[in-house]
Each structure stands twice: as structure tokens, then as C-alpha cells.
Amino acid sequence: MRCLLDLTGENHSEETLYRQIPFPPAPTDRPYVFLNMVSTLDGKITLGEVGDTAAGLGSPMDQALMKRLQRNAQAVLIGASTLRAGHVTYPETLWRGVVTASGNLPTDARFFREAPGKAVVFTTEQVPEQKLKEWQDVAHVVVCGTDKVNLVQALAFLRQQLGIERLLCEGGGALNYEMFAADLIDEWFLTLTPKVKGGRHIPTTVEGDGLPRERVVQMELMSVYENNGELYLRYRRAR
Ligand SMILES: NC(=O)c1ccc[n+]([C@@H]2O[C@H](COP(=O)([O-])OP(=O)(O)OC[C@H]3O[C@@H](n4cnc5c(N)ncnc54)[C@H](OP(=O)(O)O)[C@@H]3O)[C@@H](O)[C@H]2O)c1
To answer: Most buried residue, 9, 14, 28, 181, by most Cβ within 10 Å?
Structure first.
């Protein structure tokens, strides 16, 4: 691995990169939030079809960095489509939250079963009472929003009710858009893998309706590392 640029003043090897990140303290109303994604050069977040997993995108080094980033967090947050895509598994110590409006959640997934008491479902008032009751067998259920989940409230729950100070968001693109639109992302760890997928219907790192010109989110580069043509980029929100 090569360090191409590190404006944090550190100079990491493949053994130490992202192992212990000295993040700034969390605000009082939400955790400090960092996003991690891997994409092709053209921004796609799966090599398969819509709804497939991210399998095969990143190298073993990217996978190792993903696990290190998880160990820097106390909780992880994903969109329901990422959970439905499958193969979602985390260290048992990690709280795991999923956001859904439809209520279509695979409650037999490892996400819920592998760490009893550590799963949180954030959902809306549209979901029938019966379904909320069923979820309570496998998760904490937080209703915050009428049509869609109010992510500011969801993050306030994580910070104030569970004491979460560092939250890792792991996508996918739809949730990432909602998080950026609510200005809830402090840092973005982005692996660019030297592959090109194409396909206008294939999700990219940030989806949604798109922000108006005056609200486009400005990020600033913190570091760039490289391994076998794969780039590990770290950006933070310019404030
Ligand atoms: N390459 C990577 O690093 C990476 C990382 C993660 C995922 N992925 C891939 O990305 C794809 C999934 O991404 P995606 O953009 O299609 O979907 P996504 O962001 O994973 O999930 C979207 C879903 O999350 C729920 N959601 C998001 N924001 C919400 C809000 N504010 N209120 C209520 N519900 C909300 C909705 O669930 P309901 O539909 O249940 O209402 C929505 O349909 C999969 O192929 C996955 O494998 C890749």
C-alpha cells in the first residue's frame, strides 16, 4: 500500500490504515457519522443487477478496511434494500440499525439474530401495529416519521437513548442521499475500485432526487492511499 496524500499528518501502512481513527467528539444531539462505500470508477455500488449484493466489488484489502471501519463505530446504519440484498453481517458488539418505510424486512436475517438486543428498526407510522409487534421480538422499534423516517430523530435516538457516539453508515445509495440531504454525514470513506460497470438503472453511491445547486454538499479531502490500483479516499464535510 502507498500513501499518496495524508493531510491528517499520519502516514499509514496496510497494517495500520483505519485501525484506530481519532474522530472528533460527537455532538450532543447525534453521533459523529462516517460513511463507508466501495464503488466502481463509474460510481456503481454492485457488480450485479439491481438488488444484488456488493460482492466482488472491492479487493481483500478493501474488505479488511471495511471491517476496521466497523470496529471504529459503536453502531452501523443501513437502508432496507441493502439488508434485503443479503450477506449483511457485523461484529456482535456493534449496534445495527435499519431504515424502512415499506416494512419489508427479512427478520430471520443474521443482522437481527447474530447479536440479540442490538438491532434497531427505524420506521414510519404507515407500518401496521401487528408488524411493529412482530419486529419487537428481534429489535428495538422506533417510529419516527409519517411517510419516511426522520433521520434527525433516528440519530437523536441512537445518541440519547443508546449513547452511541460514532455511527457508521453503510449505504446504500438511497439512504446515503437522505443522510446527505439532512446534512448528517461528517466523513466519507470511499474505495474506488478500478472497474467499470455502466447501466443507468444500477444504483450509485448517492441516489435520491438530487440536491438543488445551492445545497450541494461540499467535502474536503483528508487522505488518499493506494493498493493495486484501488484508491482509499477519506473526505470530511467542509464546514
Ligand atoms: N458498494 C457498497 O459499498 C454498497 C453498500 C451498501 C449497499 N450496496 C448495494 O446497494 C444496493 C442497495 O442500495 P439502494 O440505494 O438501492 O437502497 P438502500 O439505500 O440500501 O435502501 C433503500 C431503502 O431504505 C429505506 N429508506 C432509506 N431512507 C429512508 C427514509 N428516510 N425513510 C424510510 N425508509 C428509508 C427504504 O426502505 P423500504 O423500501 O423498505 O421502504 C428504501 O427503499 C444493493 O445492491 C446493495 O448491495 C453497496
So the answer is: 181
Q: Express each pLDDT in 9-52 by its tens digit.
A: 999 999 999 999 999 999 999 999 999 999 999 999 999 999 99
Tell me if 97 CB under 6 Å of ligand 1. no
Query: Given phi > 0 = left and psi -120 to 50 = alpha, else beta, which region is 128?
Result: beta
Report the distance separating Cα 180 and Cα 192, nearest Å: 19
| Helix, strand, coil percentages in the chain from 3-state DSSP, rounded to 5 | 20, 25, 50
CA distances from 210 to 25, 170, 181, 217 (A): 30, 19, 9, 11
Domain ranges of the chain: 2-10+26-44+61-198+217-237
Domain range 2-10+26-44+61-198+217-237, CATH class:
alpha beta
The whole-angstrom separation of Cα 119 and Cα 108 is 12
Q: Whose CA is nearest to atom 3 of ligand 1?
A: 37
Q: Is 226 helix (H, G, I), strand (E, B) or coil?
A: strand
Specify the residue for cell string 502516514. 11
Tens-digit pLDDT profile for residues 43-64: 999 999 999 999 999 999 999 9
Ligand 1: centre distance to CA 73 (Å): 20
DSSP designation for 216? P
Is the full-model pTM beyond 0.85? yes
* Nearest Cα residue to 176 out of 23, 30, 5, 38: 38
Does residue 82 have its Cβ closer than 6 Å to ligand 1? yes
* Tally of residues, the chain: 239
